[in-house]
Amino acid sequence: MSSADAAVILRENNWQAWKAYIYPKLLVAGAWAHIDPGVVAPAALTSTSDAADRKEYREHHQTEGAALGLILSTISPANQRLVAGKSAKDAYDELKKVHAGQTSQNQFAMLQRLMLCRQKDSESLTAFHARVQLAV
Fold first, then answer.
1. Are 41 and 60 in contact (CB under 8 A)?
2. Residue-wise DSSP of 103-119
3. Spatial CB neighbours of 63, under 8 Å, sequence gap ≥ 6
4. How far from 110 is each of 38, 92, 104, CA to CA, in Å?
5. 53 near 42, Cβ under 8 Å?
6. What are 96's strand-pairing partners?
7. pLDDT, tens digit, for every residue of 37-96?
8. 10 with 18: CB under 8 angstroms?
9. What is the dihedral of CA 66, 85, 136, 70, to 10 degrees?
10. pTM above 0.85, yes or no
11. 54: which DSSP letter?
């Protein structure tokens, strides 16, 4: 395998390289539309669904699976936990939110916000966790 074929794994500081790597992969798979603008899933199949509905449903889920599979196969385990259970678009958007703005100034500001978070005596762990997520 040549170095040009080597997979780029999304880590803390390589958003631009990963984005440049994953975009053509998603295009080739015919799955970029699941990321931008995002494809609305077809209605669930019922006993009255015709062949065209079944085909649309099957094709949607195949390309959604391809998009999500490409994303998951090129991100670190920590990022996989971050996007677990999300659609391809939601996973990409979450990764972008977390990684695209990681300049040293943004990281320092995030650290400052995190350091100010303390669980209040009357606050549940779930509420505290939600507040910490908003801070970072």
1. yes
2. -HHHHHHHHHHHHT---
3. 29, 30, 31, 33, 34, 39
4. 29, 21, 10
5. yes
6. none
7. 888 888 888 889 899 999 999 999 999 999 999 999 999 999 999 999 999 999 999 999
8. yes
9. -10
10. no
11. H
